[in-house]
Amino acid sequence: MSTTARHAYDDLRRRFDRVDRWVAARMARWGIVLLRSALGIVFVWFGLLKPLGLSPAEPLVLATVAWMPLLDAYGWLAVIGWWEVAIGVTFLFRSTLRIAVALLFLQMVGAFMPLVILSDVTFQAGRFPYAPTMEGQYIIKNLVIIAAALVLGGTVRNRPHRGASDPA
After folding, report:
1. Beta bridge partners of 123
2. pTM, to two decimals
3. Each residue of 115-165: pLDDT tens digit?
């Protein structure tokens, strides 16, 4: 490679590196805040649909909780919906992040129950456990939410220094 070509290559690489560092810094600054906000919005939104009778997951939830004592299935649907709203609201504030993660992990126990007690609904006929139905995929995607909660939970001790700018 000629000296001129090498200088051009090195210059291009330095420019790319500068842009890459700038983008990575913005992602580091805002990624956690946006992840926490997105989880909060989704849980509030989807949670509210349940007690309002507007959730497409209603039949699955009703079938899952039909055996549970104390309330009828619609009572449990409302409880689950308001629980999800509480999860969402607590994700929206950094100060309640620990509560959000705890509530989420308790909720996820119930969220995965249909995979076991309604496997005929959550897996294609004769294809348990490797071929989920749409309902099964809806449940299994919660693994991503659990991973996101672990990432967020790992930040609770990372408080900014006094006087440092904190986006949330």
Report:
1. 132
2. 0.85
3. 999 999 999 999 989 999 999 999 999 999 999 999 999 999 886 555 555
Q: 62 — phi, psi (to 5°)?
A: -60, -45
The distance from CA 11 to its chain's CA centroid, rounded to whole angstroms, is 41
Domain ranges of the chain: 31-153
Q: Which of 135, 96, 86 is nearest to 115 (CA)?
A: 135
Would residue 94 be called left, alpha or beta, if left means φ above 0 and alpha means ψ between -120 and 50 degrees?
alpha
pLDDT at 114 over 80: yes
Amino acid at 105: F
